[in-house]
Each structure stands twice: as C-alpha cells, then as structure tokens.
Design goal:
alpha/beta; nine-stranded mixed β-sheet; four-stranded mixed β-sheet; 11 helices; globular
C-alpha cells in the first residue's frame, strides 16, 4: 500500500537581512534586522508537509558542519525521515535573503553547496522509497538531471509527481510530460512560456501553454491574488486565505507546495488540496522565516473552519 511523500531538494541556512532597500554595488547601508534559520525549497516543503500531518521522506546532500547540524535537528523535530549523504569535502548550502521592511517582499541568492552534487545515482539508490510513495515532489535547486531521474522513477511506479519549477529554467517537453502537477509562480510561468502573467486571465493562457508543452495539471501561484488550478477540463481560481498581517513572503510558495502535496497524499481531491495549500501559505506569511513559519495541522484546520464560517 502506497503512503507518504518523498521530496527531493536541498537544505540551506537562510541568512535574512531586513532593510528599506537593497544596497547598490560598492555601497553599505544599515539594516533593521537579521535572522539565521533553516531554509531551502525542498527542505521547507518537507517541513510544511510534515507539520500538516503527512509522512515525509527527504532526499538531499549535506556537508559536515554547523549548518548540517541545523538541518538534521530541524528534520528530527518535524518527524521527517532523511536520506542524506554528508560530504566532508563540501559544505551545507546557504542563502542570502533580502527582506524589504516595507512590503515583506524578498530577493534571494542560493549557494547549494553539497546539494549541487546530487546526481541521478542518488535517486537510483533510493528507488524503493520513491516507488513506494504516494507523492513525489521536486524542485530545481539541485541539478536538473537528478530531478528528472526522480520524476522518471516515480512515473514508472505510478507515483503522483509534482514539479515546482524553481528556480525557473527552460524545460523540454519530455520533462514536463513527467509532471502530473506543475506548480510555477507568476515569474516562473513567464520564463517557461514567454507569456506575461500579471492577471488571472493571463495565468490561464500560460497554464494552457504549459499543458500544450506536456505538463499535466498546472497550478500557478499568484501571490496576493491566490492560485489558479487549471486542467484541460477544469479551471478554478482559489483566493488568498488571510490569517493576519503579512510579515514575510519568503517561504510562501514552499508552504503552498508542501500543503498541496500533504493534502493529495491524504486523499483530498486536487481543488481541495489547492485550497489546503493556500491556507497553509496564508498562515506562513504572517511569521518571519521559512521553515520556522510553517504551521501545525491544528492551525491549518482552525483557519479552514474559520473561513467556512465567514
């Protein structure tokens, strides 16, 4: 019997700087805040899914250093099963995050470290874990070849596949054809299709193009405009679920993807799973940080109940 979620991705230590603007080249400015915490898209998604109640296994690579200790402690606390090689000759990933203190928006530089060496062989080594899962999730922070091999193994085994194409890059039709669900944000959808995505109607056109290019169902996350779920037979715009003042949008996409995967693994239909992911993301942006901002299942259920009662 299939169960749980396998996620391929990277961990990075997030060094988040809060300021009124980014400095220019050669300029130094004073910031208003700093925080060091766990991040990385795959790791964030794993934490989001696990806290939402899903059994999660995470595949990655780490160095042997303090940031690796941070990662292993995070995953232990979240109840995540870890399949992670540690390379003493490399380092655990790190990210610079600029947070606009006025809007909460962000700009990010990621250095994957040891996770840049994740290879198709790593996915082959964990074929049994992938093949026995109900959901396989990956992004594009580790090498594309590894992501593709994971998707191929999952697809061959009849496992539902989710690709969050971030950071965005051109993808062949053969890669998109491996994706039961493709989950870009607006800018990623624009890069993949060459079409503008600034409105819901434009998102519909981009989703149609992505399906023509080989993807299965497409979910475009639209920031404060919610998310668009689109297939060849259905189109649903899911609005944002507000849980309070927006503090930090850095991990919102990861929160959504983790929640969406957890809901699918639980047996929810895709539209309800999109709503579940939107609720999880709506809570996460009211808190600072990425993985630390992911809510518990009780918090998610409480917001869903409150939204229904409005």
């Amino acid at each position: 019997m299939r169960k749980g979620i396998v996620i391929l991705g990277i961990f990075v230590a997030d060094a988040a700087f809060r300021a009124s603007r980014q400095p220019k080249i050669g300029e130094t400015i004073l910031g208003s805040g700093f925080a060091l915490g766990p991040g990385g898209k795959g790791s964030n998604q794993a934490v989001a899914a696990a806290r939402a109640g899903a059994p999660v296994t995470f595949i990655t690579r780490l160095g042997v250093d303090a940031f690796a200790d941070m990662a292993l402690s995070l995953w232990k606390d979240a109840g995540i099963a870890v399949l992670a090689e540690q390379d003493p000759a490399s380092y655990t990933g790190a990210a610079y995050i600029f947070l606009d203190e006025n809007s909460g928006n962000n700009a990010i530089i990621v250095a994957p470290g040891a996770a840049a060496d994740v290879s198709p062989a790593d996915l082959e080594a964990h074929r049994d874990a992938i093949s026995s899962a109900s959901i396989f999730v990956t992004q594009l922070e580790q090498p594309l070849e590894a992501a593709v091999r994971g998707l191929e193994i999952a697809k061959q085994a009849g496992v539902t596949t989710i690709l969050n194409p971030a950071p965005a890059r051109a993808l062949d039709r053969s890669v998109l054809a491996l994706c039961d669900y493709l989950t870009p944000n607006e800018s990623e959808a624009e890069i993949l299709t060459g079409l503008p995505v600034t409105t819901v109607d434009e998102a519909k056109l981009a989703a149609d193009r992505l399906m023509e290019m080989g993807a299965g169902a497409v979910i475009i996350t639209l920031g404060d405009k919610g998310a668009l779920y689109r297939t060849t037979t259905a189109s649903v715009h899911v609005p944002v679920f507000s849980a309070g003042k927006v503090v930090d949008t850095t991990g919102a996409g990861d929160a959504f993807n983790g929640g969406f995967a957890a809901a699918l693994a639980e047996g929810m239909d895709p539209i309800d799973a999109v709503r579940f992911g939107a609720v999880l993301a709506g809570i996460s942006v009211t808190r600072a940080g990425t993985a630390p901002a992911m809510p518990s299942r009780a918090e998610i259920d409480a917001l869903i109940t409150a939204s229904r009662d409005r």
